[in-house]
Structure formats: C-alpha cells, structure tokens
Hints:
Beta-clip-like, globular, 3-stranded antiparallel β-sheet, alpha+beta, 26% helix
Amino acid sequence: MMHPHTQRVAIDAVVGEGVVATRRIPRGSLVWVMDALDQAIPESEIAQLPACWAPLVDRWTFSDGRRHRVLLWDHGRYVNHSCAPNCGGTEFGFEIALRDIEAGEQLSNDYATLFMGPSEAFHCQCGAPDCRGAIDHRQVPEAVAAVRRALTHALDFIESAPQPLWPLLDPQRLQAARLSLTRSLADVLQSRGTRRRAVSG
Ligand SMILES: [Zn+2]
C-alpha cells in the first residue's frame, strides 16, 4: 500500500503517469509496504501464460528477486524510475523515503538496483545530472551501493518520522533489511547474481 499522502497523476507524454506527494513526506517515512492485496505471482505461473501477456507483465509487475513477479493493487505500480531516486528498499517488501520529498514532487526508484529482465530495458530521460541513459537488466553496482548507503542513513529516521503505514510493516521485514544492509556490497551482488542465474536456468 502506498503512503496516503501520494497520488497517481499524469506526468507527460514521454513518461505517462507517475506518483507524486500530496504533502511533504519526511526522510525515513514508509512510502510503500507490501500488503495482503498485493500479489506475488510465482514465475513458474507467469511462464504458463500466453505470449500476449508478456508486455503486460513487463509493464505492470516487478521481480522480487525471489522468483516472483509482484503486482501492486494500488498506485504503487505507477512509481517511475529515476537515476537519482528518492525512494528505496523494494526487495525488503517495503520502501522508505531516502530524503525529504516535497509536495508535488514525483516519487521514484532506481530500476537499475532492482531485478529487471532483458525485455524491460528502456531509455531514461529522468533529467538527473548523472542520468545513465540506457537502463537494462544489468544492475549497476554504483547505483546499488548508492541506494544502500541512502537507505542505511534513512533507516535512522524510521522511528521518528510520522508513519501512517507502520501497522502494515512486519517487524521481521525491517530487521531483515537492517541485517542485509550490514552485508558487504560484494556479498549482495554475488547473492543476487546467484538468484538470477537460478531463475534463468
Ligand atoms: Zn535517468
């Protein structure tokens, strides 16, 4: 479920729709928590679908890195990519604001830190000073490191920020995220690579 102070809006002809803050969302706020209505569909079931579903799967779901495609029931599925994201943490089943997000500002993830497939590549026009342009299934270690760093710092604010989504967060997820963030980046990328090979093989 998305933070209640967000809404889906039309961005422009290139991007389509996105999610913006309707009020200021402080750093450390839970902006999304996976809930009972969100669907984690096993990739084995996705593989059984007729080919015509593939573009919809690419467009509307994301991989959790654990052999599922996740379909969000609310406007969480409209959160766009940015090479300078203000949200992070999808693989933990929740996301937090990596910095203060002002009212009217678009919420974003860095897709290059996620688990995209080869068919999900796109050309980025996010406008960030360090925009990487081509975004594809290859994770960018520098981007993963940057988000993990920002996430580690933002987690320091999770207890002090107002948290409308707090009742949805399983404390074990938070604990798992904190433990994961203490691992070295090399270990993280190694385990992700192992998972991806396992999925594709
Ligand atoms: Zn970009």
